[in-house]
């Protein structure tokens, strides 16, 4: 089964001949896609906490959906952690917007190996 997808590729080149490509999907199976921003502070463990911020992966608009997300925490106490997961379902807001709850545990890292818990809600649909 084929699913029609539309979008564009952005090429960021530089003078040394190296470049990268980023794919931006604008519709999935005929429906526009959207993303959400998210940010927060992890739990306080082993004497410190970390901040994090990111943007979810795209998902279709107007249908039940979730978003994948991944980001790295701030550098604190000599290390960072990776945050990765899937949001909960869309929670409607007045006016037609929505948000998603998310929560999880970071990767293990640090001089004293440990992880942090995190939770929050995404911003409105971008």
From TrEMBL:
Pfam family, one: YmaF
Protein name: YmaF-like protein
Native species: Fontibacillus phaseoli
Organismal lineage: Bacteria, Bacillati, Bacillota, Bacilli, Bacillales
